[in-house]
Specification:
5 helices; flat; single chain; mainly alpha
């Protein structure tokens, strides 16, 4: 799980997003690392976690997405060299909407018992 979080946080950095657009080898590494260094360990470890750990990870991801969204929205300068300012704002809103969706999901788990629907 730690490997997934490291890979995810690495590819959220504006500098690495710029590098992926400038270098073909970096872009190939991005897709390989997200799939095999991020996705496979996440899939393998997700079933082993308790509900509390899963919810804690989702809370952490919600906070990270909200923080990155605020960073991209409220930054007075262009953070990525290869993206326009409007694309940066769009990415910020995408991060914020993802954080809101995770929040709605966690609230739904709080108020609705999923065992009743199985």
């Amino acid at each position: 799980m730690l490997l997934f979080l490291i890979v995810l946080l690495y590819w959220m950095l504006p500098r690495t997003m710029d590098q992926a657009l400038e270098s073909m080898s970096m872009e190939i590494f991005k897709f390989i690392s997200l799939a095999f260094l991020g996705g496979v360990p996440l899939r393998d470890s997700w079933r082993k976690f308790s509900k509390a750990k899963k919810n804690g990870i989702l809370l952490f991801l919600m906070a990270v997405f909200a923080g990155m969204g605020l960073l991209y929205l409220l930054s007075p300068v262009q953070l990525c060299n290869n993206y326009l300012r409007i694309e940066q704002i769009t990415l910020g809103w995408g991060f914020m909407i993802t954080a809101a969706c995770i929040c709605v999901y966690l609230l739904q788990l709080l108020f609705i018992n999923p065992d009743e629907y199985e």
